[in-house]
Amino acid sequence: MSTKVTFWPSGKAIEVKPGTSLLTAARKAGVLIQTRCGGNAACFMCKVQVRPGSDLMPIADDEKRKLAGLDELGCRLACQAKARGLVEVDVPLDPLRAAVQKLLAKQAEESDDLW
C-alpha cells in the first residue's frame, strides 16, 4: 500500500512507510512543524489540521484525551498521528511568520489605497 503525505500550503509531498508519524514525514519532506517536546505529545505545538478523507492509523487514547475533542474537527498532533495511506495535512504558519504576512498584507493594502 502506498503511503503518501502532502503538506499544505507548501504542496510538498513525500512517500513514507505506513505507520510513520506526520512529524517525521514533515521533517523528511523539509516542512517545518514546530515542537518543543521532541515529539512526546507534551507541548501541543505540532497541532495540524488533517483534511477529510485522509487515511491515518486510528487515534490512540492518549492523543484523543489530550486533544479534548479537537480530533473531531480534524485536528491531530503531528508527533502522534501516523499515516496509513494518502494523507493531506494543513500546517499552520508559525506565529511570527503569520504576523509578518499579516503586516505585509496590510502594508500592500494601504499602498494600493494611495493610488
Structure explained in plain terms:
It is a single chain. With 115 residues, the chain is α+β, with helices and mostly antiparallel strands. 30% of the residues lie in helices and 18% in strands. The chain contains three helices and five strands, in the order E-E-H-E-H-E-E-H. It has helices spanning 22-29, 61-67, 95-114, and strands at 4-8, 12-15, 47-50, 75-77, 86-90. The protein has a five-stranded mixed β-sheet, with helices on one face. Strand 1 and strand 2 form a beta hairpin. The radius of gyration is 16 Å and the shape is globular. The N and C termini lie far apart (56 Å). The model has no long low-confidence stretch (mean pLDDT 91).
Topology:
Layout: E1 4-8, E2 12-15, H1 22-29, E3 47-50, H2 61-67, E4 75-77, E5 86-90, H3 95-114
Parallel strand pairs: 1-5
Antiparallel strand pairs: 1-2, 3-4, 3-5
